[in-house]
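Sample A.
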Amino acid sequence: MAKKPTARSEFVLFDVVYEDGSQRSNRKVPAELLGGLDGDEPARAEIEAQDKAIAEKSRMPPLAIKSLKRSGAK
């Protein structure tokens, strides 16, 4: 029996560089948050929220984001 089609959620991947010099690649951000007049700026807020949730679980302070760019962008 064939599977029923599910709602597709599209993501944009970002490379994040933190203030301490560390880097995380391929951080997922829902595509629906991006575009418009703000461009990729909403991605920063989404990634900061993800970092905060990770920091709470690991009981370590979240790192400050220095820069971010889309993965694969030059």
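Sample B, a different protein:
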Amino acid sequence: MSAAVKQGGRSKASLRTWIRMISCTILVESRLRTKLRDEFDVTLPQFDILAELDRAEAPQTMSELSRQLLVSNANVTGVVDRLERAGFVKRTASSTDRRVHYIALTPTGKSAFAKMARRHEEWVQEMLGELTEDELGSLGELLSKAKRSAAAGPLGEIQE
């Protein structure tokens, strides 16, 4: 078998795998969006910001949140505005630079996020319920390898 034929088969397998990865991502994300909206009246971007603030050891600036979540400052600002109106986050101006604001969870936000995070974990567990623990481990390792391969590819530096 020629190298071109072998490469063509690999190319098709790569494309099929990519399409499966995308379709799984879209399906899971869509179901999570619906569940978060229906049960907690929050959007997935709001949940993502709450999760990032919960993980952080200190209040985060808009730029730090933007960088961590790989979205624009404008997107973060709009989502933070809505979270602030809901009482989930507090915005505090920097004492040294009035253009910089620090965002932190409020006690209400911490409590609400803890409930959301528990349910989020349950939903993901249910959605991936047909996979055994060993299969989940193997899939996680394979996806990590795929991520490293994509990041090392010839298309340039990818931010993680």
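Observation for Sample B: The mean pLDDT is 90.
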